[in-house]
Amino acid sequence: MLAKSALLCNNGNMTKENYNIYTILDGMHKNAECELNFGSPFELLVAVVLSAQCTDKRVNKVTEELYKVANTPEQFVAMPTEELEQRIFSCGFYHNKAKAIKELSASIIELGGMPETREGLMQLRGVGRKTANVVYAVAYGGNAIAVDTHVFRVANRIGLADAKTPENTEQQLMQGFDEELWGHLHHLLIFHGRYVCHSRAPECGICALKECCKHYKKNTAESK
Length: 224
Known about the structure:
The protein is mainly α and 224 residues long. It has helices at 2-9, 16-28, 41-50, 56-69, 73-78, 81-88, 94-111, 118-122, 129-140, 149-158, 166-176, 182-195, 214-223. 62% of the residues lie in helices and 0% in strands. The longest helix is centred in the middle third of the chain and has 18 residues, at 94-111.
């Protein structure tokens, strides 16, 4: 990914520091990509809904069986709510998630098909900006940064953003990085948050970013 990205990114919109951070992250997480399994944009949309406060590993186990029974908007609309709740129970918050899946499925049918733009996806009932960004970037190859808890934490901890909300974090990342890198940056920050920069105990000792990291620099200065 980096070889291609390096040719694309240094077009004047990025600072040297941000470019360095991007290249270091890319080197640390060479396999950074969406870890949700899906066979269509609609399947990805359902999986993203199920992934709220749930691991991708658990979602993949659930959808492996779920999609054998239903994997189209029409099939989910026809499925009794109680059955859907039972099938997604282990993902947590199954009442709300079942309702969201039923409502977005009905919206897609009303629209006459699955939207292919972020704006179109956000017209679906129950689909917010983060979910729309994931589907737009991953399923359709669009340029977008979805700010989940990992992206929010890591971006602000490293110093790529200084924001109080996911929305402002997204805007600052979009301003700080070239557009063609947004989708991959999203995955790099997620992987870094999952596997290195944990919420309670970041593994700074093994992190190649520590010399660039605001959090590490602050803690090092305070310990002296």
